[in-house]
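Annotated sample (chain length 505).
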Amino acid sequence: MWSPRPPRRWRCRDRLSRTLYTSNRLRQFDQVVAEPSNRNRDSCVDPVGDCRLPEASAGRRQFTASRTPTRKPSRPTGPADPAAAHDGRPSSVTAHPSASSLPPVPLRAVDRAFRATASGPLVMGVKLDFPGAAPSLSEVRARVAERAVPIPSLYYHVADDGRTLHADDALEVNDHVRETDRAGDGDERVVDRMMLDEALPANRPPWDLWLIRRATGHSLCFRSDHALRDGSAAVALIRALLEDRPGWRPRTRRELRPGPRDFGSVTGEALRALRSPDIAPGMAGTPVGTQGMLHADVPVELLHVAGQAHGATVNDVYLTALSQAVRRWYEDRTGTGHPPMPVSVPASVRAPGRELEVGNALVTTRVVLPCTRVDPGEALREVKAQTRRLREGRHRDAARVVLRALPAAMGAWSAIRLVDAEAVPTLASTMEAGPLLTVQGRRAERASMFLALSGGLRCYTALTTYHDNARLTVVHDDSLPDVSRLVEHWRTAVGELAAGPVLRR
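Output written by the structure step:
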């Protein structure tokens, strides 16, 4: 019997077709304007006076209210530096060649999850540390103004309905590229707190780039609303915007077809997240709402040596050292052992050629840290067994397919459950920031990724590998005691794992 509505499988196929159409449209725009101007590209210092930027067209078509609720694009209000109005510098307004044609993009399940956990913009970022004197703010702004033109994802903001992303016609670079002078601060942790707490630009695309003058050098920090991009995209963007010779892209993976066992693994993980697990005592408690950031640096080679000694990956070594650090840190305070602790580990599903696209391309997997193991070698074997099952199967591909198939609201709810403080006490991210880079002729020494706390979490950890350095970053609520000991225990555990396969403490 004929029905006025098509079968459900057709309707799902139509939704998928619309999603693929939007994704392909964005990829076409990226390909059309993928290469920035070659002018001054290989120069160590961009001559500000020679920079010519395309002006926003007065006749650009605006999105109509019949498609999605719109917001009036930001308009130039004059240079932030008063001298810029008189010294011949170019306008700070940059217009994307096809900005008026960039389609609205629906927020995916993971995007909505990050938006919901923070009840607004959730700050995440990537920071590069340099020795020596910093470039001038005008030099950084000129480079960003030129490089930002052909990157569509920088023009998007969350629409008023909270469900779609819209593209502005132009960027006011002076509002996005800012500076702060902290050379007089003896404690550089003040800068880190500022990057966590400072609000992102309002009423315009929610990202900024900070030039930070420190007592021992300077830093360049790219921050964004996590609802619009993940760590992999943030690393790709900061390098594309600043690097003297851009071209490096983060590691991606082609999409694979998962099997029934992979879907079963994802279902089991989701069911475990629905249960109320025992809260890890080391991370239990009520957040006070203020947060800080601590770091520990080790040579990348040390992580490789530790992995080779046990037939493990760098990520395995990182997670094992974290389990040992939590055990020792808790034992120092209480004199008792710490039970096994589940953590959520984000995994990228970003496909090749989509490194700069808007939106998150990640899923989360669940790993239980064997905090009861005194022998680091035994702990590493347990971690390696868990991650090997995830790597050899197609767990992340199954999770990707499930999230795409679910309605956005339901997918966001399930994603929140996997990273909520009631399910896991912390997130443990890993990011590769690429080979050595130079900005205005200055070499970056270290890179770090960070995420502001939300959803009741009191701790977030990230390992960022860059050139020959690996940096552990711990973002912590101030209610956690003596976090510096946790960081030092992690560094010690990495050294022990590199020393040999059998160790006891």
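Annotation: The mean pLDDT is 79.
Annotation: The first strand starts at residue 93 and ends at 95.
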